[in-house]
Amino acid sequence: MDVRELVGQARSGRPRAVARLISLVENAVENAVERAVGNAAGVAGHAGGDPAASRALREAMAELATGAARPYSARVIGLTGSPGVGKSTSTGMLIRAFRRRGSRVGVLAVDPSSPFTGGALLGDRVRMQDHATDPGVFIRSMSTRGHLGGLAWATPQALRVLEAAGCDVILVETVGVGQAEVDIARLADTTVVILAPGMGDGVQAAKAGILEVADVLVVNKADRDGVQATVRELRYMTGLVEAAWRPPIVTTVASRGEGAEDLLAALDKHQAYLEESGEARRRRLARARDEIEAIALAQLRSRFAVLHGDRLDALAERLLGAETDPYAAADDLIAALG
Amino acid sequence: MDVRELVGQARSGRPRAVARLISLVENAVENAVERAVGNAAGVAGHAGGDPAASRALREAMAELATGAARPYSARVIGLTGSPGVGKSTSTGMLIRAFRRRGSRVGVLAVDPSSPFTGGALLGDRVRMQDHATDPGVFIRSMSTRGHLGGLAWATPQALRVLEAAGCDVILVETVGVGQAEVDIARLADTTVVILAPGMGDGVQAAKAGILEVADVLVVNKADRDGVQATVRELRYMTGLVEAAWRPPIVTTVASRGEGAEDLLAALDKHQAYLEESGEARRRRLARARDEIEAIALAQLRSRFAVLHGDRLDALAERLLGAETDPYAAADDLIAALG
Hints:
The structure is a homodimer. Chain A is of the alpha/beta class.
C-alpha cells in the first residue's frame, strides 16, 4: 500500500493503518540508528541500511504534518515515575476516565530501557488489553532504543500519527527515573509524576529529580501506610519553589479506580492554566523546535557515520594514542561535513 | 591560575586542582547547554554565554589528552540500578576493597535526574565522606543536566581529569532506570548492575532493560527474603542469551561489607576477559568515538542555537501552522550550517 493511502486510512481511524504507520516510524528510526551505530563500529554490511524506509517515513510525515487540520491540537499527557508505582494501572484508569467523557484516547508506552525484551513488559500489555476491543482507544508500545536520540526522534512522529487518527488525548507512559522524565516533560502538555508511599529510598531519589518537571503529582496506592506522610513531604517540597503553577497532589488507588475524578479535575485545571497563561503555545513551539532539532542532529550523526565513519575511526585511534584531543578531533569531524 | 598549571597540579594528585578541573568541565558544558537552550527558547541575554569557560576547557582537554602517559589506562567501572538498591553503599564497599589493594580510586557520582537538588542526594554525600580524608580517593558528584547530551559530553572529560590525577580505578555511579545505564555501559570497561531482592515490579522492570548491558550482576541486600529466587531468575534469564561473556551473579550485603571479595573477583575476571578477547581495546575505541561525536554534535547544536536560533524559531512556527513538515524543516536547518 502506498504511504498516502495509509495516511488516509489512519485519518479515518482505522487501527491497522495507525499501527502500520507507527511501525513505519519505529522501523525507519531504528534502521537509521543501527546504520549509524553499525557504521561507526565498523560493522560491515550496514552501510546501505534501508533508505526505502526513510523515504516512506519522510513522505508520511510530510503528508501528516502539512495535511493536518489542527496540528498539535491533541492534549499530550505524560505519565512517569519509578518502576512499581503503578504507571500502567494509572494509565488504564485515565483511559477509562477519558473514555467516559467520550474522548478518543491514544496511548504510547515508551520504554527506552528495554533493549532486552524489545518492548513493554508482559504485565502491562495484558492490562492494556482491557481496551483492545474499544475502537476509541489506540494503544502502542514503542521500544526504539534510547541511544543516539532515537526516542526523541521517533516519539513526536508517533504522536502525529495518533493525532491524525483523531485522538483528542494522548497518554505517553514512560518507565523513567532519570533522563526519561526530563524528555517526557519537553514533549507533553501536562506531565504527571506518579509516586507510591513507603518506597523508601526510591521515593527519595525519585522526588529529587522529578519535582521540577511535575505539573501534577499523584500518590498512588493510597490505601497503603505512609500515604499522608508522603503527601505532606511533597506539599512541603513543592512549596519551596516559586512558580506560576504549583503542582497539585492527588491521591489515587488506581487498581480500584479511586481518585480518577480528582486526577481528571487536576489535569483540566492544568490545561486551563496552560491556555490562559499562553504557556500552551510556548510548550508546543518548544516541542516543534525539539522535533526539528532532533531530526537535524540525527541526520548529521548519520552523515558522520555513513560518510565519515572511517575518519571517525581514525580520529578515535589517534585519541587513544594521545596524538590528538577530543575537541580538535570534533573540529576535524565537523569540517568533514562542510 | 592558568590552565596548564592547574593540569600540572592535578597530575601530581592535588585534590583541589582535580576538583577545580572537574568544575571547569561541568561549568563549561552547563554554560554551553544553557546557552543552546536559552537561545532556542528565545531567552534574551543568553547569546554570549561564557566563551572564556569553553576556551579554558578546550585548553585543559588538549593538555590532558595529548600529555597523557597512558591515555585510557584507568579501569572504568560503572555501577547502576534502580533507586533504593544500595548503589552508594556498594560504591563505598568497592572503594574500600580497591583501597585495601593499594589502588588509587576515583568516584564520579553522575545524577542526571536531579535538576531539583542540583546533585547527588544528601545521604549519598554523607556516606561518601567516610573517605573524605583519604588522599587515595577522589569523589565527585556531577549534576550536569542530561538533556542535549550534556552528560555524554562532560563525563568522559571528567574521567580524563581523574585519570590524570593517577586514579587506577574509576567508579562511575549513576541513578538509572532507562537511558542512564545504556550510556554508562558505553562509557565503562565493566558495567555492574545492582539489584535487590523483593522489589517486585521494580526488579521486573529493571531486569528487562538492564540485563543486556550488565557485565556483572549484583544482588545486594542478600540478607533479605527472596534473594535465592532473584538469583535463580537472573541465572535463568542470563542463560537465555548467547554471548561470549555471561555475567556472573554476585550476592552482597554492602552495608556490612559482605561479598566484597566475590565482587572484586568477578570484576577482575571480567577485566581479564576484556584484555584476552581484545574487547578492552574495542570498548575504548568506541568510547573515544562517542566522545568525539558527542562534542561534535554539541558544537553543531550550539551553532543551531547561537547562529540559527531565529531560523529554528521560524521553522517551529511554520511547523505549528502546518506549513512545513519536520523533515523539510530539519533539512532547512542543516542547510543553514553549510
